[in-house]
Each structure stands twice: as structure tokens, then as C-alpha cells.
Amino acid sequence: MTHTDSNRWRTIDIVVASVIAVAFGVIFWAWNLVWSATSAAFAFFPPAHTLIYGMWLVPAVLGGLVIRKPGASLYCELVASIVSALLGSQWGGITIVQGLTQGIGAELAFAAFRYRSYRLPTAVLAGALTGLGAAIFDFVYWNKATDLATYRIPYALLTIVSATVIAGAGAWYLTRALANTGVLDRFPAGRTRAAV
């Protein structure tokens, strides 16, 4: 099998990527409520609210780790954002554009290793780049009217930290946990359990 053939999506890849995306679209909808409900808890330093941001970025990294094909990260994050918007995200349709921007970050990390490395450092990089994509979008769209030094820069940096930990490392550990149950046996992630 050539490397190009191994990059072709199988029907099961599409189905599982879609399941991941739809499940996280529902989680996004719930996380939107958590985000709104917890804003007062971060009144002491509003940019710190982004410490819980990483949950919105998990499908980009998880999709890449499980499917291991070009486009998986982008697909999972984008479809999850579409589902979230359709369920009534308080931010409306712009969340779809955000999902696209966020998915590109993780996609770039896996592409940098030619879709051949799925170890923890790669997952952490994917999380960080997904966070960077989110931070850049928010920097120029949501936060453009806020102060650069006291809000925008800390917000961006903490978004990247959250994404690195929750989406990067979190998705890697979630992939390992799923692989250990056997549900990923039809995927490379399940066949290389010890080295996920």
C-alpha cells in the first residue's frame, strides 16, 4: 500500500469522524452554557476564563489522532462547530468560521509530520496550534475593542495554554483510553495501543 493509498478515507473513517464531530457538537452546545455560567467566577481577571477554552478544541486533535488521515482534524472541528451552531450557539453562525480556523491549527501540526506521528508531543503541538488558531480568530474578531496588554495578549496566551493541555494532552489520553477498550481496533490508533 502506498502512502497515498493510506491517506484515502474509508467509509468507517467518515462514519467515526462524523460521530466524533457530532458528539462534540453537542458537548460544545453544553460547554457554551458552562462558559456563560462561569464568566462571573473569572471577574478578578477576565482573560483567565480561557483556561476552560480548550474543551472546544478537543475534536480537532482527537479526530487527527483517531482517523490519522489528511483533513480529519479540520473535518471534526468544523462539523462539531456546525452542529453547535445548529443547536443554537449563542454566538450564531460565526462559530462555523471559528471551527474552520481552529481545525486548521491541528491539521498543520499533523501535516508537519506528514501524518506519520501521533505521539504525545505531536498531540500537544496540535493542541497548541489549534489554540493559536482560536486565539488569532478571537484576537481580531471578538476582542478587537479590548486593551492589548491587559486583555488581548493574556487572553491569547491562556487560550493556547488551555488548548495545549485540554485539547492536546487531553485528546491524546482520551485516544489511549478508547484504544484500550478495543473500540479503535479498526484504526491504527487501536492497533498501536502502547505507542498511541
Description:
The protein is mainly α and 196 residues long. 69% of the residues lie in helices and 0% in strands. It is built from eight helices and no strands. Helix 2 runs antiparallel to helix 3 (58-67), helix 3 runs antiparallel to helix 6 (120-140) and helix 3 runs parallel beside helix 7. The longest helix has 34 residues, at 148-181. The mean pLDDT is 94.
* Main β-sheet description: none
Q: What share of residues is helical?
A: 55-70%
What portion of residues belong to β-strands? under 5%
* Gap from first CA to last CA: 21 Å
Computed CA radius of gyration, to the nearest angstrom: 16 Å
Number of helices: 8
Overall geometry comes to globular
Poorly predicted tracts of residues: none
Structural class: mainly alpha
| Element-level helix/strand string | HHHHHHHH
Q: Gist?
A:
With about 200 residues, the chain is mainly alpha-helical. Helices cover about 70% and strands about 0% of the residues.
List key phrases describing it.
single chain; 196 residues; mainly alpha; 0% strand
Helices and strands, with pairings:
Elements: H1 3-6, H2 11-38, H3 58-67, H4 72-86, H5 94-112, H6 120-140, H7 148-181, H8 188-191
